[in-house]
Every structure is written in C-alpha cells, then in structure tokens.
Amino acid sequence: MATIFLDFDGTLVDVMPRFHAIFSEYLTQKGYPSPDVDEYRRLKQSHSYDPEIFKVLGFEIDWKDYRTWKMERVESVDYLRLDRLIGDPHQVIAQIRQKGYSVVLLSARMEKENLMLELKWLGIHDLFDSVIVTERYEDDSKARALAGFVGEGDIIVGDSETEVIASRELGIKHFGVATGLRSPGFLFEQGARVVLRDYTVLPEML
User: Each residue of 41-97: pLDDT tens digit?
Assistant: First the structure.
C-alpha cells in the first residue's frame, strides 16, 4: 500500500494567526506598528523570510533578537492554540484511504509532545496511521526522517521547500499547497511541479 506523507503546519492547519501574533507582539514591544493578519499573510508569502519583511516595512530589527523571541514562542501551547484547521481532515483523509493510500502525518516540529497535544484538542489525534516528527528545522529534515521508509507510489504533500527537497532526494511524487508560509511562485522556484489550492482537493488528484 502506498503512503501519503501529509505535512501539518500550513497544510492541515492555518498557522498565519500564530506567526502573526508572534511577529506583531514583538513589533509592539519594540514600539513599531504591526500589519494586520491579512497584510502579514501577503508579506509572508511575498517575501518568505522575516528579515526581508522587516526591510520592506522599513524597520530596524535585530534579527538574532527577534529569532530568539520567535523560537521561544512558536511551539508553545498558548500560541499553538491560534492554529485553525483547513477544511475537514476527517472527510479528506477518508477519501484518500478510499483511493488505497495510508496516511502519515509528517511534521517539522521540535516539540513532539506539544504537537500531540494540539492534535488532541483539534480532534484529529487518531486520524493518521502514524505521526513522524523531525524534531529538526533544517531544509532536509523531512528527507532524512523518511530515508529508508518510502516506497513506490508514495507521495509527499506540503506548503514548503522541505517537501520539495524530500521528494527530489527520495524519488517520490510531490504536491505543494498554497495555504502556508510560502507562495506558489516560491514553491515552483524550488522545483515543485504541482501546487494545489489546498490539500482538500488532493483526492481528486490521486
């Protein structure tokens, strides 16, 4: 049986409210005005990396200071509660299984325990055949996590370059999604061939 390796952040859940809250609170405590969440979403997908966004906004920000602030908060339970499900994972995953695939959640998180808590309060903790957590943020973290586990017909789905890299290094099919922190244009530049509106249309592509 082939497997769909399904990303979490930006694919199954909208993380923009969480990332915006961290970004906004930092700017506020530094005395800068903050863009609203819709403007932040536009900036994030247009420029990808926070230092570029600060430059566009004309703010003099110490990147190392901001990165420490962000890393201390990005996987904390209080901020994770800002994530929102995209579509109905139960319905979509049931449709994927009807196509003959198993479904594995693949997440680039450092704090596996907090991810599992989030899956529980979102009501999707028992939805997957298994959960793989990289516990690393590097671009090749998902490729390394899946090395030796992928087979013919497997597919990886996600919103970032980490899934593109994994598909290329492991020789499996890839679908990008346009609901995360990277724009479709960015994903195509990284080598994606197909970028879906969101993961809910995946069953139609199988």
Answer: 999 888 878 889 999 999 999 999 999 999 999 999 999 999 999 999 999 999 999
For the chain, count helices (H), then strands (E). 11, 8
Residues 150 and 57 in one domain: no
CA distances to 27, 100, 132, 173, 176 from 122, rounded to whole Å, are: 29, 25, 18, 28, 23
Please tell me what DSSP assigns to residue 28.
H
Containing structural domain, residue 48: 16-80
Give the Cα separation of 34 and 22 in Å (integer): 11
- Model confidence, pTM: 0.94
**Based on the domain organization, do 25 and 8 belong to the same domain?**
no
Q: CATH number for the domain including 168? A: 3.40.50.1000
Q: How many domains is the chain partitioned into structurally?
A: 2
Token pair belonging to 16 = 């923009």
**Length of the chain as a residue count:** 206
Q: Cβ contacts of residue 186 below 8 Å, gap of 6+?
A: 45, 48, 161
Residues 29 and 109 in one domain: no
3-state secondary structure string across 84-97: EECCCHHHHHHHHH
